[in-house]
Amino acid sequence: MARATREGLKQYSSKRHFILTRAGFAGVQRYSAVWTGDNESTEEHLKLACTMSQNLGLSGVSFVGSDVGGFMGEPTNDLYVRWMQLGAFTPFFRGHSAIDTKAREPFSFNENVEELSRQAIQMRYRLIPFWYNEFYCSSQTGLPIMRSMFVNYPKDENCYRNEAQYQFMIGDNLLVAPVLLSTDSFKKFYLPEGKWYDWNGNKIVAGGQWSVIEVPLNKIPLYIKEGGVVPMQEVQNYIGEKKIEQLELVIFPSEKCEYTLYEDDGQSYEYENGKYSLTKFSLERDPKITKLLVTKLKTDFKNDRKKYLFTLLDTKQPKKIFLNDKELQSSVVSFDKEKNILHINTDDVGNLNIQIIY
Prior knowledge:
Elements: H1 2-12, E1 20-21, E2 33-35, H2 43-58, E3 64-65, E4 67-68, H3 77-87, E5 94-95, H4 111-126, H5 128-141, E6 146-147, H6 149-152, E7 168-170, E8 174-176, E9 186-191, E10 195-198, E11 203-206, E12 209-214, E13 222-225, E14 229-232, E15 246-251, E16 256-263, E17 277-285, E18 289-299, E19 307-312, E20 320-323, E21 326-327, E22 333-336, E23 341-347, E24 352-357
Parallel strand pairs: 1-2, 2-3, 4-5, 15-19
Antiparallel strand pairs: 6-7, 7-8, 8-13, 9-12, 10-11, 10-13, 14-15, 16-17, 17-18, 18-24, 19-23, 20-21, 20-24, 22-23
C-alpha cells in the first residue's frame, strides 16, 4: 500500500510527497515514514516512545516517531512537556490524539506548558540542517538516525545495560538523555569514553562513567561528542517561512575532525539527477593554531546562504584570526571568556581557509 501510494503520487507531481504508515513489512522505509501506533498518555508509553523508535531504527526504519502526548487518554502538564522534549529529538515529530480527547495543542495547556513546548519546538527548527543531513547519511549507510547507544559504541558493555536504552545518539555527534518520568527531577545516564560538551551547562564532562544530574522541567540533557559538529539555523515557524541566509556550525574541536553537509532543494526529485551540494568542514588544532577549512565538494544545488557563523566550544582566546590569508577584524569575531566560546562570522564565498592563532 505504501509503495503503491508513493508510485501513484509520483506520477502526478514533481514534488516529493510525505507518506505515513502504522504498519508494513521490511523495506517499508523506502516508501513511507512510520509511527508507533495508538499509544496511551501514560509514563509507560512515554518510555515505549523512546525504545520503540530505537528498535524500528535497528530494523532499518529511520523515519519514525510516536504520537506525542499519547493518542488515548489525557496527559498531565508535566507528562506532555516531557513527551514534547522527547519528540523534538525523534526523526518523526508529531502531536496527535484521538477524536474524543481534549485539545492537544501546546496552547491548550497552561502558559508554562506552552512556553516549554515552544522551546522544544524551536530547538527542533534550529536543528533542521542537522536533521536533514542525518536523513541523507541514513539513506546512504542504512544506519538509523536515532541510534541505540551500542550502535556507535559496540565494544562498550555499559551501552548494553538496561538503563542505556533510555538515552540515544542522533547520528555520531549528539547524545540525548530524555526524562521519561514526569515526576523525575534527576536523570541517570551514561557518557561513553572521551570528552563531552554539556549543551545546557556549557561545560566539559569526562566520559566513561554514569552520571546523575538534576533535570528541572525546562531541561533535556544534551551532549556533543568531542570532535562533533552540529549545523544549525535560525528559528522558523514553518519550513520555507523565510530565506535562511546564515548557517551556524557548532563545533566541539578535537585534534582533528570533519563533517560533510548535504543540501538540496527539499521539495523536488532533482537530487536524483545530481542536483545537490556537499560541503566539507574540516578542523585541525594544536596548542598554537587551529585550522578550519571549508571545501565545496559538489555545487550542483544553489542555496540562499550568504554567511557562516562558526561557534567553537572549549577554546582559548585567539591573538589573531586569518581568513584566506587576510586578518579578520574584531567586528566579526567575539570571544566569551566565561564560557570559552569563540564566534566567527564569515561570508560564504566558496572555499574558506580560516587560521586561528593563539
